[in-house]
Amino acid sequence: MKTNEINLFELDELPKYVEIAYKKLKNSIFFDKSNVITRNDLVEFEYGKQWKNRLKDLADSLVDSDKWKSKEKKILEAINIIALPKTINNITDKEKSKECSDEQKSTSHESVIFNKNHNEKINIEDFQYRIDMPIEGHIVGVLWILLIGRYLDEDDKMYKHSYGNRLRRSLFKKGKKPTYYPGMFEPYFSQYTSWRDNGIDVAREHLDKGDDIIILTMYLQRYYYSVNYQEDEFNNIFRALKLENNDKKSKETDVLTRIHRFVFNVIKSYSCKLRSECKDEGLWITNNNVKQIGDKHANNVLPIGFLPSCILANYRLNVLDQQINTRWNPLYYGRYVDDIIIVDKVEKNSELHKLIYDQNTEASNIIELYLTNCNAKKCEACFNQSERALFCHSNIKQNEDKDDKNVEEQDYYYLNPEFLKVPLASQSSKSAEAGTMKVNGDVYIKVQNKKVRLFVFNSGSPDMLLRHFQNEILKNSSEFRFLAPADTIYSVNAYCKLFDVKYSDSINKISSLKDIAINKFELSKFLGKQMSISVLTDSKDNPNFCELLKLMVDDVLIENYMLWERILEVLILRHDKKNLLRFAQNVVDSLRKLAYKGDAYSSRDLVRVFYSSLCRVMALTWGSRADSAIKDVCKIFNEAQLADEATNFDEKTIFRFRKQYCFSRMLNKFLVPLCVESIINKLQEKIKVMEDELENSKDEQVNIFLFDFQNALSLISEINLSTNKYYYSPTVIKPEELKFSMYTAQMFSKKNKLEVDEDINKLYALLNYNYKFNNGNTGGDDYDGDRLDNVVTIVSSDRPDTDKDTYYPDDAIDKTFVAIKGEAKKKLHIAIANTKIDGRYFENVLKAVYNRSLDRYEKLEEILRMAVKEKVDMIVFPECYLPYEWLPRLNRFSTTNKIAVISGVEIIDINHSDEDEKDFKKDIFNLTAVILPYQINNYSFAYMAFHEKIHFSPEEKRMIVNYSHFPREGRTLQMFYWHDVFFSVYCCFEIASISLRSAFKNYLDLFVAVECNKDINYFSNVMESLCRDMHCYCLQVNTSDYGDSRLIKPASSVKMNMMRIKGGCNEAILVEDIDIYGLRNFQRKQYELQRDEKDNFKTTPPGFDISIVDAKLHKRLVKRIKEEIGRTKKD
User: Fold this and answer.
1) How many other C-beta atoms can be found within 10 angstroms of the C-beta atom of residue 1103?
2) How far apart are CA 837 and CA 882, in angstroms?
3) What confidence score (pLDDT) does residue 106 get?
């Protein structure tokens, strides 16, 4: 191992490092769906006004030897085991009875297929064990990662295609010091898809070249239990990472030593506890085929749920990564923790070719060809631990036991222990050869043979086979945290996808049907869809969800315990108390049936899972309705006598946890339409009142639903830059979240001038990095956060904040320029959304009637699905299309898929006066939202802009005024620069103004107009004239029933229309490329040269400024525009 210098912290920085470690711990727990028990401990950690003193006390203890001994002893003694079901044995009680013959046993389960478990017991086959430890211990674990473990994850030590549990590359800045940014590991969802899709891309590339391809997938069985770190190896790691001048002792090195030893002591204490409590379950195999169940071998396993285990698990497999690439050197070898994909081509006349095409090849033959031999010239597995074989095969042939289950257990490959050696940092173990140390003891790292898969693709294979393979990998994944994001685009009619149907023969034969099972990943997507429906629509009656609840009983319910929280969320979002209580009762009934090896099994930890889930979900709702539901759930569990000291089913105790979930920001923020920071102050006040009323046994309380937009509005306030902010949010508070909430707060507070961009950078730095800008809008040299201003630049001509009724002529309208840095695109792939705007929407809003139907939402989702499928860069919707509260959904869609969204927003009605709440008079806003995705340091964000309609049409004004409301017209035009494309967005009647539509003459590559307009002939003529006069691409999107949605270019009438559509009862998109560079290169030429290309474009109009085009081509225009606006502001 190469000796490294550890970049030490200063001792006075330790309290800051502890705070950073705590914030990153919160982030990991927030997103880990399998760690809900620890999550409850974490929110309890923040209970009380002086909770931060616990962080300070931990930092003080690490510096003081005596204090640390006491603190460490307390933590280690508190370590316990969380045991949760990993596998349920679905064999019926009848099959297992002694009276049942062998023949009956083999046929009874296959001949009768049940849709639910009819057993008296739910038999747990094996468990997933996790560590249960005080939060202080987890914080020190994260400190180890930040100060020591990070060096084990550096690129020069870790294989480039090792995915999963990898530290973010931007985690450390400014001399390799960690930042306050909450994220620590790369997002597991994106890491998993990269691991899988990179292999698929390599396979697809070679199939296109005419090669035959194999894809081999393997899984290391119960890998965390197969890793054995002993104290001498752990000490060796530290020595190898010591300071260059390690003879000089310091307090800093003492702290590092304590942290490093603590991590090993946690592993050791946990392993000891695991051995003592799991004596009858062999978790790991030694070199004598002996299941280790006692202290004889003292295997120190990696505790699941302890974050240093993530680093150490990858570090152990470095030798595997190196050897497979050296010995086999396939086209692609990728590893996601313990899941492996190998892609290679089949060379003609090779041993591999002979195996595949001349014999009945199994996956094991490929393993034996490449991994159990040193020269890959013969197919003969090694049964000894010679240095020739990377993998060894268990000697099943010498075993006389013919029991199928035993044979299956003993038929495995394991990583040759001879390769498990690490270089010595100094002289140490005499048992190893000079300069190396044997590691992992006598414990085998095994390949689970039943999960080994071989896929053979012949050249010319249809691409759908590869896509099917991608899905198969997902089904067989060992990633138990792998749940689909709640915003996954998923059809509400895809209920049937929940079920995996298994056949013994042809899929066309009903008689060959063997089993029906629920696909967990599809179930998580389905529930995510139900959450979106429940939050964004007024449809609370979905038969598919009710059908699902009927299935969630007995073994199905226990197998999917990680989804209990999502089910509870949907029930709360639907205000469905009846089914909430039914679900709680089903959980209780299932817990009572739990058994292990025929005996009743304690359900304590599963009860804790439900309890934690209930506390978090109920943090979204407050008041009498919530209290009533909680009281009834508590009654169900208390009557079943399932509560204990860790799960006190008492309304007051649960109230405290709910409160802590809000105050610690550990509630599900993705179900809250407004940024939590914008509602937390008023929410705290209301919770305090409710707490007092609960103490006084007051029954009736005001109901608050944080997931309801209109309800949340009552809590909103502007987020200011005061210094008493909460800096421990578990997630990044993104600029688009701040923008939406701050704009909403200003709009509903009836500010005359809605401008929030100038504070976004400061708030982003303050809330995410605990950094306060002293001067200007950019951080100083000591700011180590993401500099949004380096990517997003906003300049505008200043105008005094005057009365909202002040009239401004069109030539005096403000102009704002938004420039977003990013990869330049020569062509832009643009989509028109062809969808119908219900003509009643406008008038209904004026009457305070709002459409939030499931049908309306499904139409939006359908269009978004098509946009993703077509891989568009930008999609444009008509005027008044999208309800304002659905914009956060579009924000997340934009950042996830890197698709720009431009959409008209349904008119917004806001009370005209604060004096009389019953006053029906409203201010009416007509907004167009522009959402532009961008990246900083591989983090995805979106810039959101709101264009307030400057001119309502005469008919719109007539309708508004005759309902006694007031049209609120805007005063600003915006021009955007995104992917090297200059464009502006207009709303319908605005383009009738000559001065408005020509405001950015010569500058635009693309002119966008969103409309809901009947007068298509007039607007068509305007757009065609505008296209020639501005000499740019013009896109107008109208409601489908009026039509004339079109993309045109400045060309002859024959070639002008690039796409055009009207009508259709279904949702659809039209997609076309606009050639930005082609247009600019044409415009740069003089008339004579332009005539040579008259088939492409019409010549530029008189007065066209070629210098602007030249500035575009040479990337100087952004700077020029900034200078021009700056001069305007001075004037």
Assistant:
1) 8
2) 10
3) 44
